[in-house]
Amino acid sequence: MILNGHRFSIGKDLGHALVFLRNQKRPLRLRVDAIYINQQDLPGSNSQLQIMQHIYLRAKSVLVWLGQDFQVDSGIFGFLPKHQTQPPADNDEEGSHPIQGPIFPTTFGYRQRLWIIQEIVHAYQLVVCFGSSTRLDWETFMRVVMKHETCQDGPGRLYRLRMEVAAGSSTLQALLFKHGDAVCAEPRDKIYGLKGLAADADDLPMDYRKPFMKIWRDVIMFVNKKKTLAETDIMSFGALAMVSA
């Protein structure tokens, strides 16, 4: 793609998502983390990650991109009104918050990127997009998925977590136990991604410049200070935090 007059390399899925969202009538305002955040600039990346929760809470909508090739049985969504199978229009009014997105898991398996969990859970409004023109609001998408989902994983798991976080009942300790199997390319993302969902982790320091072992120590000291873990379980929890990341 061309960014500010220069070539900028992006992934295939992101390219497909941007083509899907392109609106020829007027510019579409997007925030795309893969473009906006310079992962090589640790101080800048740190500052962005610390406000990520607020960005997703304030965004007008978050776009969930399931992929250009994502397909479902045509009968499953056959009942939908015609307007729900068209690309999202830019109805953003001047001064309102920009659209946030896109998020682009290529399958229902959300574990490919743990930050997807935080992005989806904190979003005020979610729009699910896939194929060449299909878009659904999150509630409609989940209503259909929950009827056909045969396991406790995938979108249903995210749906339940959204409800738990909204209720303020998710602790960092519980999140590590429940979602410690999510896979991250960057080990520190596991801790910091789940910290953003925890109702009790505001005082856990967040610094990507720290070696992972110091971050692991911060987590152990944080949980130990909460006194919510039996002494006999501290070692096993420490091992979980290590494996999780």
UniProtKB/TrEMBL annotation:
It holds the Pfam family HET. InterPro entries: HET, HetReg/Transcr_Mod. It comes from the Eukaryota. Residues 3-119 form the Heterokaryon incompatibility domain. Transmembrane segments: none annotated. PANTHER family: ANKYRIN REPEAT DOMAIN-CONTAINING PROTEIN 39 HOMOLOG-RELATED (PTHR24148), HETEROKARYON INCOMPATIBILITY DOMAIN-CONTAINING PROTEIN (PTHR24148:SF81). This is Het domain protein. It comes from Apiospora kogelbergensis. The lineage of its organism: Eukaryota, Fungi, Dikarya, Ascomycota, Pezizomycotina.
